[in-house]
Every structure is written in C-alpha cells, then in structure tokens.
Amino acid sequence: GTDPRNSSPDQDQSSMLKVICNQRDRFRTRLRETEEELRRLKEKYEMLAVELEKTKADNVQLYGKIRYVQDYSHEKIVSRGPKKV
C-alpha cells in the first residue's frame, strides 16, 4: 500500500493536493507574519521621523542660544577694551 507504483491516480492527486494546500497555508502564514512586521516597521519609522523633526527643532534653538552667548561674551570683551599688562 505504500509503494508509489501501486497507487491509483486518485490517490496521487489527493496526495499532491494535500502537499499544495499545506504549502499554500505556510505561505499564507508567512505573508501574515511579514505584513505584521511591515506594519510594525512603518509605525517605528513614523515615530522616528517625528523624533527626528523634534531633534532638528531643538538643535536650531540650541544653536541660537549658543550664538547669543558667544555674541554676548564677545561684546563684553570688546567693551572692556584691551587689557593692560
């Protein structure tokens, strides 16, 4: 009964159908997993994009503050004039 040469065409088709259905089910499962991973990665990308924009805005503000402090320090040095030794 297990010798493939003695199996009928109906049994061969049924066996082939089972193999194909199992493969289809594996592909469906893999597709669902891949789609879920893609969804998570898109969410992470969007979160990182928002964080990047906030960081850029913070950098602009910090640069402005640094320039202000540098200009203020420079004005104090200039207003005092050269130091006499």
TrEMBL record:
<dbReference type="GO" id="GO:0006891">
    <property type="term" value="P:intra-Golgi vesicle-mediated transport"/>
</dbReference>
<keyword id="KW-0175">Coiled coil</keyword>
<feature type="domain" description="CASP C-terminal">
    <location>
        <begin position="6"/>
        <end position="76"/>
    </location>
</feature>
<protein>
    <recommendedName>
        <fullName>CASP C-terminal domain-containing protein</fullName>
    </recommendedName>
</protein>
<feature type="coiled-coil region">
    <location>
        <begin position="17"/>
        <end position="58"/>
    </location>
</feature>
<dbReference type="InterPro" id="IPR012955">
    <property type="entry name" value="CASP_C"/>
</dbReference>
<dbReference type="Pfam" id="PF08172">
    <property type="entry name" value="CASP_C"/>
</dbReference>
<dbReference type="GO" id="GO:0000139">
    <property type="term" value="C:Golgi membrane"/>
</dbReference>
